[in-house]
Amino acid sequence: MTASQPALGAVAHDELIRPGALLVGTTRRDGTPRISGAEPLVMDGDLWLSMMSASTKARDLHRDRRILLHSIITGPEPAPELKLRGSVREETSPPTLRRYADAVASRLGWQPVVGRFTLFSVDIDEITYIAYDPETSGQHVARWPAGEEYLRPATTPTSLGPPRPVNRILTAD
Predict the structure, then answer these.
(1) What is the CATH number assigned to the segment(s) 6-165?
(2) Which positions ≥6 away from 14 have C-beta within 8 Å?
(3) pLDDT tens-digit profile of 107-142?
């Protein structure tokens, strides 16, 4: 995705990876959503999430591989919101687990113990970017791979007008 959409890839990195934490949405056994925190890591061009092996979010992902990752919004200031939808694949290869543990130790400052965590790589299906547009006081929205990008100008403090196509983040595939 970052090769074909460099601007969106940069925003995704700034909003999801750089802060060091994100929100993970999984599906509970009863079908309701679960929101948890996680520390993302990009290694070899792939997005990785590790979890305690017995954690409820890891059990959720073993049962249903679908995942939603969401940037953390920390205040009332208008900050971009990024949502990534996809699915996970569990990684069990000892060399990959060791490389991941070493990468976490050098980049995130803590040392996962191989055999004591579950590691998932994330296959990205869709990314949605939503940001405040100061010019229109509305929303700037971009969706990949749908290739949709538009502004919805504010008509009142709590409502938006019809979408107007723009081209600020996405590049034509």
Answers:
(1) 2.30.110.10
(2) 80
(3) 998 999 999 999 999 999 999 999 999 888 899 999
What is the DSSP track for 9-33? HHHHIIIIITTS-EEEEEE-TTS-E
Burial class (CB in 10 A: 0-12, 13-18, 19+), 166: middle
Q: What is the dihedral of CA 48, 53, 58, 59, to 10 degrees?
A: 150
Are 36 and 22 in contact by the 8 Å Cβ rule? The answer is no
pLDDT digits (tens, 9 = 90+) for 18-35: 999 999 999 999 999 999
Q: Where are the domains of the chain?
A: 6-165
Residue 95, SS3 per DSSP: helix
Measure CA of the first residue to CA of the last residue in the chain; give whole Å.
11
